[in-house]
Design goal:
Shape: globular
Helix content: under 10%
Order of helices and strands: HEEEEEEEEEEEEEEEEEEEEEEEEEEEE
Structural class: mainly beta
Distance between the termini: 42 Å
Number of helices: 1
Radius of gyration: 20 Å
């Protein structure tokens, strides 16, 4: 065989490794095609345990590293749950009618008094303060005492997302509202430059990245000056997270986007048309959850 022919044959034999973010596997407890599963709104991973919270009757699914199936646990509430986070090796979930519940390991949950009776949509935690945001500009906080108290946000717009870094909380919500606070008690409005609803916010500890209606993406290093970015989609983005060096955003019609910096975005094939509501990084892969029983796991992105 001629040298040129040999080289061509060798090149043709080389296989390009698949990008793990292009490989999403259905992990839902119901068949992907049925569209009859529960609606899931939040997902978080801590200490070998993945927790997913749902939008009907306080649904909580739990899966530990090595488990082959999901376990449904008693949340102690019948109210829909909208978000979940971790702090100090415990899980915290929030939901309708001011619901706040906590669990040390994910199996047993205890109700806390949030002092409010409105839907709570987002929760985050920093060194010593929880901040929970919700309908009609609701904000409640809790310190190490475990007691919750309502705070004035200065807005009546519903607040859907919250994140923290560099001594700053950032909350986002309906009609382009952006709020910032250095203590979760006093909130200051900032101009986002848009009237579109903002649904989620994440940080890589350098910048905040906000996602929202019609594929909207905004970035800011200080929560004051916001820059619109081209996401490459017009589908609404409902959730965003940062892990293993990547931002991952999810949304309507199964859209999944990734970005190394929040500026340039790449569309990934999810294999579904379900509404995806939230995403989290867990150990070596990303997990996206949404409506009609959708739970997706990406390929392994590294160790």
């Amino acid at each position: 065989m001629r040298p040129l022919a040999i080289a061509v044959a060798l090149i043709g034999a080389v296989r390009v490794a698949a990008d793990p973010l292009d490989e999403w596997t259905w992990r839902g407890p119901t068949p992907r095609e049925s569209f009859k599963g529960d609606n899931y709104n939040g997902v978080v991973y801590e200490g070998g345990t993945l927790v997913i919270v749902g939008g009907s009757a306080g649904k909580i699914l739990l899966r530990k590293d090595g488990d082959a199936s999901w376990h449904t646990v008693d949340s102690g509430t019948q109210h829909p749950l909208y978000a979940v986070t971790t702090a100090n090796h415990s899980f915290y979930a929030v939901g309708a009618r001011g619901t706040v519940i906590t669990s040390r390991g994910g199996e047993s949950w205890v109700a806390r008094d949030s002092t409010l009776a409105v839907p709570l949509f987002a929760i985050t935690y920093t060194d010593s303060v929880f901040a929970v945001l919700g309908e009609g500009g609701a904000v409640v906080t809790s310190g190490r005492s475990g007691l919750w108290s309502a705070k004035a946000s200065g807005t009546l717009e519903s607040l859907y997302g919250v994140a923290y870094f560099s001594q700053m909380f950032v909350g986002v919500g309906a009609n382009g509202v952006v709020l910032k606070s250095d203590n979760a008690s006093l909130w200051v409005p900032e101009s986002s430059g848009t009237n579109s609803s903002l649904y989620a916010v994440a940080t890589d500890r350098k910048n905040f990245v906000v996602v929202g209606e019609n594929g909207l993406v905004l970035t800011s290093p200080d929560a004051v000056k916001w820059t619109a970015r081209d996401s490459g989609t017009t589908r609404s983005l409902m959730g965003v997270t940062y892990g293993n060096g990547l931002f991952v955003a999810v949304g309507a019609y199964g859209v999944i986007l990734t970005s190394p910096d929040g500026v340039t975005w790449k569309t990934r094939p999810s294999g579904v048309t379900h509404l995806l509501r939230a995403v989290a990084f867990a150990r070596h892969s990303f997990w996206a959850v949404g409506w009609n029983g959708s739970i997706l796991e990406s390929g392994a992105t590294g160790k």
